Amino acid sequence: MSDDAVLVQADGLVKRFGDFEAVRGIDVKVRRGEAFGFLGPNGAGKSSTMRMIACTSPRTAGELRVLGMDPDRQGPRIRARLGVVPQQDNLDNELTVRQNLQVYGRYFGLSRAQVRDRATELLRFAQLTDRADDQVDPLSGGMKRRLTIARSLVNEPELLLLDEPTTGLDPQARHLLWDRLFRLKQSGVTLIVTTHYMDEAEQLCDRLVVMDGGRIVAEGSPAGLIAEHSSREVLELRFPIDQQQANVPLLHDLAERVEVLPDRLLIYTDDGESVLAQASRRGVRPTSSLVRRSTLEDVFLRLTGRTLVD
């Protein structure tokens, strides 16, 4: 692979805040044209890693190259070619939707005519044309998020960094945002996404790393990670209070593994319906049962012993 095909390369990357080590020696390689994800719970080190890549937080140790350059020495040159979508929208509520785009474009040295044309194009992309002259404050959360993403594209970046892009959005708004991001990737923009939503990682990412406690615990495609670390299906069983643990011995030999969570049992198997029928014949009587496919949440649970929302 040529150096030009690698947009971000980190080797032994470390970030400390005083005595606290937020990122603990990770290796990452992001290739041109892919959607790459950092998946993990809050506090895993995802945002700290993103700020180092965005050249807004210096690394403590290790090597980091972004767009072939050193963030410590060439931060302004790198930032000129990046788009950054922060975790919290930081739009200017005193300006209209269109003005938010135009003013931001001027920071990158675009002419008035260029920012006017670019704003019109991005309003169309974000499906905000009919709200162009409205104030920002009354917009829905999903509209504000789409505007923040549109603003990050003003300078036509090669690399777009999105930190928890859909946190707080309703399902319809999340799916619309995913569609916009998929279109960006199809147009050749490289995406780096942090998320603690496994369905988002599966929808958006070609490849991802699973982070926990500042370390990378697994890396691969979503489908590859699930195939490597989990079963094809998961049977979820819920029981009345205080009856859950008593049923575990009746299930252990029916599946590859059984996870005991506070509110349910997870039985990992390639045929959930068959295991449910066998459990029923043994006198297992859950209050509810669900057979579903394995997800990245199950991968994280297998690797760390915790769920992503712990």
TrEMBL record:
It comes from the Bacteria. GO terms for molecular function: ATP binding; ATP hydrolysis activity. It is a peripheral membrane protein. One of its GO terms (cellular component) is plasma membrane. Residues 8-238 form the ABC transporter domain. GO terms for biological process: response to antibiotic. It is found in: Cell membrane. The keyword RNA-binding does not apply. Keywords: Antibiotic resistance, ATP-binding, Cell membrane, Membrane, Nucleotide-binding, Translocase, Transport. InterPro entries: AAA+_ATPase, ABC_transporter-like_ATP-bd, ABC_transporter-like_CS, ABC_transporter_ATP-binding, P-loop_NTPase. PANTHER family: ABC TRANSPORTER ATP-BINDING PROTEIN, ABC TRANSPORTER ATP-BINDING PROTEIN NATA. Belongs to the ABC transporter superfamily. This is Lipooligosaccharide transport system ATP-binding protein.
